[in-house]
Amino acid sequence: MARRQTLGLVPTGTGNDFLKTLGVPNNWRAACDVIARNQSRPIDVGRINGRVFVNNVGVGFDAQVSIEAQKVKGLRGQAVYMAALARTMLLSYRTPQVTIERDGETFTQSITMLNIGNGRCSGGGFWLTPQAELGDGLLDVCVIRGLSKPRILALVSHVMKGTHVTKESVQMKRAHRITVTSPEPLPVHADGEILYTEVKRLEIEVLPSRLTMLA
Question: Is residue 116 part of a domain?
């Protein structure tokens, strides 16, 4: 049996969102101090179409914002994602019809976005799955139905505080396994990195306690 590896995390990314759930400071010196303490904890990871992620997967609008974020120059942190959000709003965007199967429950609807979180935060400070736990053996699922641009803008401030979860246009679920299919091609990111610009089927699952983190 392969030896399980232990991973420490030092913030060097744009959003550093996973730190917020893990409880590691967003400062490289302080993060190194955490590693030096050598206190470990097991966490779950996710897998999408055979590829592993630790924080979250975004489908639809969320992924389009990540695509636009890669084009933003001269900004850092959450400012990158706010600029990318503005760019996405200026573009024509779709609210595709998708079928989501969650642990045997199946429903079909148009979506603005679908976010599947092992962690709580993404996009530099958007708390899409604010109640997610890294060690509960489940993925949190946030489904936002197809909305107009004004309604998306009205929801943004709530997503930044995690208070969107009670809104009528939002469904919050938990699952071990999620399958997403669509007749339309979908953009998808995992941990902020673009996996697909056009995909029609996703198979996502949780791998409980698969990774040990220094935190």
Answer: yes
Domain containing 193 equals 14-214
45: helix, strand or coil: strand
90 — phi, psi (to 5°)? -75, -25
Residue 143: name the closest of 168, 104, 172, 103 by CA: 172
On whether the CB atoms of residues 77 and 133 are closer than 8 A, the answer is no
Tens of pLDDT, residue by residue, the chain (215 residues): 445 678 998 988 777 889 999 999 988 999 999 999 999 999 999 999 999 999 999 999 888 888 888 888 877 777 887 888 888 887 767 899 999 999 989 999 999 999 999 999 988 888 999 999 999 999 999 999 999 989 998 998 999 999 999 999 999 999 999 999 999 999 999 998 999 999 999 999 999 999 999 98
d(CA 196, CA 186): 7
Give domain status of residue 113, yes or no.
yes
